[in-house]
Amino acid sequence: MAEVSYIKASRVFSGNPPVRAVDELSLDVADGEFLVLVGPSGSGKSTALRMLAGLEDVDEGAINIGGKDVTNVPPKGRDIAMVFQSYALYPHMTVAENMGFALKLRGVNKAEIKEKVAEAAKMLDLTKYLDRKPKALSGGQRQRVAMGRAIVREPSVFLMDEPLSNLDAKLRVETRANIAALQQRLGTTTIYVTHDQVEAMTMGHRVAVLKDGLLQQCDTPRALYDRPANAFVAGFIGSPAMNLKTVPLTSEGAKLDGIVVPLSRSALDAASSEQLAEVTFGIRPEALALVPSGDEGMEMTVELVEELGADALVHGAVKIGDSSERFVVRVDGRTPPSLGQNVKVVVRDATEIHLFHPESGARLEA
Amino acid sequence: MRRFLDRYWYAYAMVLPVVVVIAVLVLYPLAQGVYFTFTNINEANIANPVLDRPATFDVVGFKNYLNVLSGDQSYGAFWGTLVRTLIWTFSCVFFHYTIGLGLALLLNRQVRGRTLYRVLLILPWAVPGFISAFAWKYMFNAQYGIINQFLRSIGLPDPVWLGQSNWALVAVIIVNVWLGVPFQMVALLGGLQSIPGDLYEAAEVDGATPWQRFVHVTLPGLRSVSSTVILLGIIWTFNMFPVIYLIADKNPNTRILVTYAFERFFSGASRDYAVASTYGVLILSLLLVFASVYRRALRKQGEVW
Amino acid sequence: MTLDATSLQVVKASDARLKRTDRSRLASFGLHATLIIASFIAVFPVFWVLVTSFKPDARAVETTPKLVNESSLDNYSRILAGDKGGFLTWFGNSVLIALLTTIIAVFLAATTGYAVSRFRFPGKRGLMMSFLVVQMFPFAVLIVPLYNVLLTLGLQGNSFGLVLVYCTTAVPFCTYMLKGYFDTIPMDIDEAGRVDGLSPFGVFWRLVLPLARPGLAVTAFYAFLTAWGEVAFASAFLSAADESKTLAVGLQVFVQQNRTEWGHLAAASILVSIPAVIVFYLVQRFLVTGLASGAVKG
């Protein structure tokens, strides 16, 4: 078990211009922590993980595992185990051989390998399949073998590269919980890469959001959700995504269609100190509410209603200035408005308003 | 430099043996061969280490190339031979490819006994070349060959296949087609199997007839295999000498560039290494030009290898 | 397959359901007829040599050939007894040379193919291009310079020298083929192996080679055939002594000296073909997958 740190680590792919796939990433992961790297495709999250694994060069900066600089250490010297998206099970070996391979390479004696494999197989409910080849297993079973292969080694760090993306939706949710519980039990430092923010939020102790090779924010799921550091994180975390609109600013607050949403003093100060006439205004669908048509609020024409059971998501167009902007509102699933209906939308809770710089996207107010 | 070696040393370690073998046994002799083309080297004036005789050949500049390219009969009538080489190459590759593709298409279907058919059809590839040559030479024999026996029995004329006429060229082309079809068939069969089945289903749902599916799904799906095997086929056929040499011997009607190089090399007491090498270099240049044109044509259509 | 008029006719009225995979009887007949004719043409020359190999020399040249004509195993027994040259010695030489060529060529092609498939390194493109160019030159006209090289290396007249020469002809194509095959093995497997504690060579040896068996089989087949049937190099680079000849060389001499002994020639040919056909039979089930990936990715 060990802590992991990226120290201004970069991976630069040669080309014209060179691509900085991971750009000066600095990140400290505590011993036993479950850290999730999340971001859209091309954000450099997998590259960052592979740099830690030693499968990708570290062109600048350094990486430490357990306080030891491993920047130039080959994968086998890093005491890590990795679960691949494709699982990368060795097709010519049985499940037991797959799981025991790393130990065999280290020269562990056969009896001990057998014992450890049996133990891991029991934990993962794979005992029945130990003599099978990967080809004869279902997707979920293969995924568990890949996990087992990592567990058997008792490494100081687990690396997981989108290990659930080849499973169907139901199995994915189940396995998600299993992995989190397993990590809890083993207490091994884990770095987990995913593009799915739900996975990130539900599994990670902390979540690091990357975009274009740059770390955007690294914090607990709650903090990411409540105080996103910039407009990108705000839009990326949470489903459905936060409503993010550029709106004009008045002395009291942000001007939307028909209403002026009052803003906190600190936010207004921050905006005026930068002399902004407009801000990026963000509000989550659940912080909006529909009110009776007589009341004050933004006029919205309902274009789509997604019924989710407990909730419903109402999509509609709201006029801001000259353009029509799309908003999503989360409402009670039993009383959704109908299509084409004109409704009034209000901000339910002014403390849930997020303001960002319209150009840089950085969060306004401290 | 340290970093360079650090990063690449295992790649270089893995290719090193091949590079050494190729450099010593291919590039060095090739360079020497190219040098020979500017000399009048032959069996009489070459250094002979066994007899401890020093070399006495002279450098003659471009004389060999001029002699060969003049098309002179005594230097193998280069241009006529080139035309025959092209006929030989293109007819062989054409039949290799079309027959190979046809059989591959048949074998790619659900046919009872598919494995057996496949084994039988690949068999010509497995038989050593000189044995096949011998078999065909025997079958082509004008008097006791089974082929003429068969032609006579169904009332067709029975030519003297391997005599001094163009029938000899036809005969060696037939043999080479027989030899080369299995390779193309196997490669194309693999190519067919790599075309995803849902492409055919999509085309069928779009209302494509079997012929349209062949033209718009099968052929494009085979493009990359086809371009590779056709290029290889052309290179191999261009330089295919054992078949011709073993079946038709030194028949001028089957003479192609490479067999003539051989004739010069092996025939008589004064083995003419200089002219043989000159032919070798000319063959290499022709194929290089062809390959680069071929590549450019493919690249223009968006296919690069 | 399509529903044309003929296919509808053969379906009984009571069972008008047509499975998609059904083929009309006519199409089926055409398909099998074509395959049978093609197979016949493919096999016939070999079959005819087999038939001839049992006939006495005089019967083999009759103008109206028959399948059986005083056939016996005499030709075989005389050849194997050594009446027509040291057949068994030649056979041994050929087996040795072909096996050595196969092992060395496959090994060289595998390491090179793997490096080219997995690593990006300066000079890679040049290497691949040179493999293509190497196949364009009629190397037999380089026998003289090659002879000098082998003499300098002390390998002239030695089967190992000949094996190396064969490797240079087999390796370029084999490398292409194996590179293509290695390309189909996911990189993840290599990486999993690296993480599990293998060196780059370990990955190659313990993971990639076992997984590339079909590709290796085809490569071995190709290399074996290259060496097994070759005449020109073998006659130039092996010592002229009868006991060091390969089968191909020995038979060549035999043909030149005994132009009329068709029966014996046929028997000898069959004997020569047997090992090649055995090797072929062992690898044939891999041929399609092994060769295809090589050619597809060429």
TrEMBL record, chain A:
One of its GO terms (biological process) is carbohydrate transport. The keyword Transport applies. The keyword Disulfide bond does not apply. InterPro entries: AAA+_ATPase (IPR003593), ABC_transporter-like_ATP-bd (IPR003439), ABC_transporter-like_CS (IPR017871), ABC_transpr_MalK-like (IPR015855), ABC_transpr_MalK/UgpC-like (IPR047641), Mo/tungstate-bd_C_term_dom (IPR008995), NA-bd_OB-fold (IPR012340), OB_MalK-like (IPR040582). GO terms for cellular component: ATP-binding cassette (ABC) transporter complex, substrate-binding subunit-containing. Pfam families: ABC_tran, OB_MalK. Keywords: ATP-binding, Nucleotide-binding, Transport. GO terms for molecular function: ABC-type transporter activity; ATP binding; ATP hydrolysis activity. SUPFAM superfamilies: MOP-like, P-loop containing nucleoside triphosphate hydrolases. Residues 7-237 form the ABC transporter domain. Gene3D superfamilies: 2.40.50.100, Nucleic acid-binding proteins, P-loop containing nucleotide triphosphate hydrolases. NCBIfam families: PRK11650.1 (NF008653). This is sn-glycerol-3-phosphate ABC transporter ATP-binding protein UgpC. The lineage of its organism: Bacteria, Bacillati, Actinomycetota, Actinomycetes, Pseudonocardiales. The gene is ugpC.
Automatic annotation (TrEMBL), chain C:
Keywords: Cell membrane, Membrane, Sugar transport, Transmembrane, Transmembrane helix, Transport. One of its GO terms (biological process) is maltodextrin transmembrane transport. Its main location: membrane. InterPro entries: BP-dep_ABC_trans_perm, MetI-like, MetI-like_sf. Pfam families: BPD_transp_1. PROSITE patterns: ABC_TM1 (PS50928). It is found in: Cell membrane. GO terms for cellular component: plasma membrane. It is a multi-pass membrane protein. Residues 91-283 form the ABC transmembrane type-1 domain. It comes from the Bacteria. The chain crosses the membrane at residues 26-51, 95-116, 128-147, 159-178, 216-241, 261-283. Belongs to the binding-protein-dependent transport system permease family. MalFG subfamily. PANTHER family: MALTOSE TRANSPORT SYSTEM PERMEASE-RELATED, MALTOSE_MALTODEXTRIN TRANSPORT SYSTEM PERMEASE PROTEIN MALG. This is ABC transporter permease subunit.
